[in-house]
Amino acid sequence: MLLRFDDGSRGVFTVSQVSAGRKNRLSFELNGSRKSAYWNQEEPEKLWIGHRDRANEVLLADPALFAPEARSAIHHPGGHNEGWPDALKNMMLSFYSFIRDGKNPSQDKADFATFEDGHFSMCIMDAILKSAACEQWVKVIERKKAPVI
After folding, report:
1. Which of 3, 40, 120, 124 qualifies as a cystine partner to 11, CB 3.0-4.6 A?
2. What would the pLDDT profile of 66-96 be if each residue is shown by its tens digit?
3. How many Cα atoms are found within 13 Å in the side-chain-facing hemisphere of 89?
4. What is the rounded CA–CA span in Å between residue 42 and residue 61?
5. Sign, CA torsion 20/118/87/72
6. CB-based contact 11:5 (threshold 8 Å)
7. Which residues are paired to 48 by β-bridges?
8. Eight-state DSSP code of residue 53
9. pLDDT (0 to 100) of residue 146
10. Which one, of 98, 118, 117, lies nearest residue 108 by Cα?
11. Nearest-CA neighbor of 95 among 108, 81, 76?
């Protein structure tokens, strides 16, 4: 899928459930004029950083290197893999903490995926299907949101 953002940035997103040897691959690559970064879910403890003017590097996950907001989601010392089960655990921990702390979803920002996030994901999927059918660019249109009760 080709992406074009409001600020003019462009991107590519690839999904495949038929690629041999790739059972559950998710990866991100960001490319700039001087540096690039690549992360692959199959090796979640590594971040590849590419440089134009010096050697490339691989940064290994280490809680000491993360921002304080992210550090709370890391439960193992550096050198130990965290992955899919940890992401689900962290999401549920955030969800239950939100409820325990008496936060209100209509007023407080959630640090976990919400029904709104799921709704927006479905709007993206609708645009992908429409774009594939008509073979042209399609804007993602977010449907009217239901009130929070």
Report:
1. 3
2. 888 888 777 777 777 777 777 888 889 999 9
3. 9
4. 14
5. positive
6. yes
7. 38, 58
8. S
9. 56
10. 98
11. 108
The string of DSSP letters for the chain reads -EEE-TTS-EEE----S-STT-SS--EEEEE-SSEEEEEETTSTTEEEEEESSS--EEEEP-GGGS-HHHHTT--S-TTS---HHHHHHHHHHHHHHHHHTT--TTTSPPSS--HHHHHHHHHHHHHHHHHHHHTS-----PPPPPPP-
pLDDT in tens, 38-57: 998 888 888 999 999 999 99
CA dihedral 72, 73, 79, 85 (to 10 degrees): 160
Contact 121, 108 (CB under 8 A): no
Phi, psi of 95 (to 5 degrees): -60, -50
- Cα–Cα distances (Å) from 38 to 31, 60, 78, 115, in that order, read 9, 12, 19, 29
The two tokens of residue 4 are 């074009």
Amino acid at 104: N
Q: Tell me the one-letter amino acid at 72.
A: S
Query: How big is the chain by its Cα radius of gyration, in Å?
Result: 19
As given in the structure block, the two tokens for residue 72 are: 């709370």
The sign of the CA dihedral 126, 127, 132, 133 is positive
